[in-house]
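Title: Comparing notes on inverse folding

I've been comparing how different people in this forum approach sequence design from structure. To keep things fair, I'm posting one structure and asking everyone to reply with a full sequence. Here's the target:
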């Protein structure tokens, strides 16, 4: 990028402050090819255009025009973004989109009485080189004062200047303005033009070293992540010889100490020993003295280049965490819905761990589950209800805690006196961690902290949130752009991640199956359910229920062969090879098992789970009892090695949130899902009634299965 090209945008702005007579004199001197009469008739705007073009070729004129240029006290805001490859529109489109966005904001501000800012305008838009853009803006800011004669509060508007530089190749930007509110407006204009978003960059130590070296620091503020009674959490040092102080050197080397603000005395372009302040967390640099706008722009472009180069070098060296720490991802819109700051920071920590795993291609990594993640993460709907993993050291068996009647495996984590305690999700009773019964061996085991033994499985809500955040990080790491799904879970301090899915090594498998995939369902799938009979058939399905009145271990085991009774489980069992129907015994067992044979001849082991809602017109949800039991049943079996297909059996409506959670759980554990809803079960029932040839008539079968209830035929 040539220096003259770089200075040219500022020349037009500086000429606006010159009288038209002075511009005509300059035109006579530097544009001799123009007739004097034409110069005298030219408007001020025409003269500015002609002289600006000439200054791009004549360095002497450029320096003369800039010698009396405009100066500002600038602040720089470093930003990250993600511009898709070949995603930048043409220059004419960009300018039009920026001007449209500016017009919309101005219309909004014009409706306010005495707005703080008004009359934004795009002064100039320049493409310095491929993928490097600068937009120069001007606007007005209100200035209130006491009128001396009337002693009334009056106001005037003063001119403000700023610009926005976008490095689309490296997905970085720098915004020059004074306040964060001004930055918000300028970001909005450029965001609309490129259809991208921006996030403040966090200036970590490797980036601070690109602004100025430690021996140039004159003032520094430090914050301890973990304070002690003998040490203040926040401290500020200031001295001309600051770097030589042992206490400051100790803070600088302490991993527990973070430099949150810095003031340097460093050269700035042609100006020597300029003071520059830095606020690390907001990615802000500021110059406390009037500085020419061309020097400010020159420094901004130079700084942006150095920051991008540093981050690229860190990435190439595998220092991924150093790069991730600069993103300020907790302010990204992906986490905007998480209001609790503690939880938001824990989600960022989880995101960074997963990002590191993808970049290093690690399928497992140790991970400490915090109290915020275990309690607030579940209550915010980001994780399914937690389970407590128990290990029996004598048998080496691993199982999951369940409540007294084995109806729920879920626990709730709460904080009491600064410690994590576990409660039964269903019974609301506190769990004695010293006296836990292992579900498989029956032995008593004890644990110290529930956080070290939790299993957390994400919900679709969290998966979408993390994928959106990863997309933003992919502006620095191309590898992170491949992820279309994040299949992971946390069990006993270990994250397990499906790398093939995260790196898109294999195409996404369609988890949800249809009746047409299996041989025995072929007749049923083509069965038509008459519109006029649908309600009656659904009533028959509810009549059958999850179990019949004759439920016992022996009757259930031989039910399909005996053909004496019928319930939802045996209805589905009739379509399985080698069916096993179990008496209801809690969440540790499925309701029915068997083999489903695909049309290609493959045999898939199916575990079926039958569940009805509490009322005929209600459904199954994550929050109601029956929906939670269904989820608990599935989680109780999902990690079985011989399980291929989860079969949900319910004529009740399965709420979308619950269905999505079950689907994601199946994807996380590489299982398939077949949902036999009201429509599919109606097809099965009609096919069953027609073709399965019971010795006794079908109405008698219903009456025998549930005596005392009216058969809805």
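Reply #1:
Here's my take.
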């Amino acid at each position: 990028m040539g220096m003259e090209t770089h200075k040219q945008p500022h020349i037009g702005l500086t000429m606006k402050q010159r009288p038209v007579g002075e511009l005509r004199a300059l035109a006579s001197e530097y544009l001799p090819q123009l007739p004097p009469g034409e110069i005298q008739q030219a408007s001020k705007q025409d003269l500015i255009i002609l002289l600006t073009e000439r200054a791009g070729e004549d360095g002497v004129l450029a320096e003369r025009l800039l010698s009396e240029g405009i100066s500002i006290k600038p602040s720089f805001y470093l930003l990250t973004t993600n511009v898709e490859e070949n995603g930048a529109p043409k220059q004419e489109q960009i300018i039009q989109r920026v001007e449209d966005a500016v017009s919309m904001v101005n219309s909004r501000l014009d409706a306010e009485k005495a707005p703080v800012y008004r009359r934004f305008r795009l002064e100039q838009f320049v493409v310095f080189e491929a993928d490097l853009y600068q937009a120069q803006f001007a606007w007005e800011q209100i200035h209130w004062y006491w009128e001396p004669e009337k002693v009334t509060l009056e106001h005037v508007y003063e001119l403000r200047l700023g610009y926005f530089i976008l490095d689309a190749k490296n997905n970085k930007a720098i915004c020059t303005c004074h306040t964060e509110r001004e930055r918000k407006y300028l970001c909005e204009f450029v965001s609309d033009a490129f259809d991208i978003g921006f996030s403040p960059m966090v200036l970590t130590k490797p980036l601070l070293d690109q602004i100025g070296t430690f021996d140039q620091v004159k003032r520094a503020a430090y914050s301890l992540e973990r304070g002690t009674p003998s040490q203040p959490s926040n401290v500020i040092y200031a001295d001309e010889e600051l770097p030589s102080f042992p206490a400051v050197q100790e803070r600088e080397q302490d991993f527990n100490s973070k430099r949150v603000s810095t003031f340097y005395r460093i050269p700035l372009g042609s100006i020597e020993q300029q003071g520059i302040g830095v606020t690390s967390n907001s990615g802000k640099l500021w110059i406390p003295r009037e500085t020419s706008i061309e020097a400010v722009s020159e420094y901004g472009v130079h700084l942006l280049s150095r920051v991008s180069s540093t981050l690229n070098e860190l990435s190439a060296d595998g220092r991924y965490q150093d790069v991730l720490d600069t993103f300020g991802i907790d302010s990204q819109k992906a986490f905007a819905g998480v209001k609790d700051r503690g939880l938001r920071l824990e989600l960022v920590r989880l995101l960074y761990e997963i990002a590191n795993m993808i970049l290093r291609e690690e399928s497992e990594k140790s991970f400490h589950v915090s109290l915020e993640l275990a309690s607030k993460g579940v209550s915010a709907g980001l994780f399914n209800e937690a389970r407590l993993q128990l290990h029996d050291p004598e048998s080496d068996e691993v199982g999951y805690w369940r409540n007294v009647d084995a109806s729920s495996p879920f626990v709730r984590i709460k904080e009491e006196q600064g410690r994590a305690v576990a409660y039964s999700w269903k019974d609301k009773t506190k769990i004695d961690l010293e006296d836990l019964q292992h579900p498989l061996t029956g032995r008593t085991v004890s644990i110290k902290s529930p956080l070290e033994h939790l299993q957390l499985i994400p919900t679709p809500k969290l998966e979408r949130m993390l994928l959106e955040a990863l997309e933003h990080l992919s502006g620095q790491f191309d590898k992170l752009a491949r992820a279309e799904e994040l299949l992971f879970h946390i069990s006993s301090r270990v994250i397990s991640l499906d790398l093939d899915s995260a790196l898109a090594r294999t195409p996404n498998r369609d988890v949800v199956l249809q009746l047409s995939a299996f041989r025995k369902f072929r007749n049923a799938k083509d069965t038509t359910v008459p519109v006029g009979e649908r309600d009656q058939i659904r009533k028959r399905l509810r009549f059958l229920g999850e179990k019949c009145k004759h439920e016992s271990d022996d009757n259930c085991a031989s039910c399909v062969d005996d053909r004496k009774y019928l319930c939802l489980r045996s209805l589905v069992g009739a379509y399985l090879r080698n069916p096993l129907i179990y008496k209801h015994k809690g969440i540790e067992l499925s309701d029915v098992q068997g083999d489903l044979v695909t049309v290609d001849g493959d045999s898939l082991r199916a575990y079926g789970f039958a569940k009805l809602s509490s009322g005929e017109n209600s459904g199954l949800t994550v929050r109601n009892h029956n929906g939670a039991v269904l989820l608990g049943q599935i989680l109780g079996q999902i990690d079985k090695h011989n399980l291929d297909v989860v079969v949900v059996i319910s004529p009740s409506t399965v709420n979308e949130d619950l269905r999505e959670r079950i689907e994601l759980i199946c994807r996380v554990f590489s299982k398939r899902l077949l949902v036999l809803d009201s429509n599919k079960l109606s097809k099965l029932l009609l096919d069953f009634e027609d073709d399965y040839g019971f010795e006794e008539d079908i109405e008698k079968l219903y009456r025998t299965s549930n005596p005392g209830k009216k058969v809805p035929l």
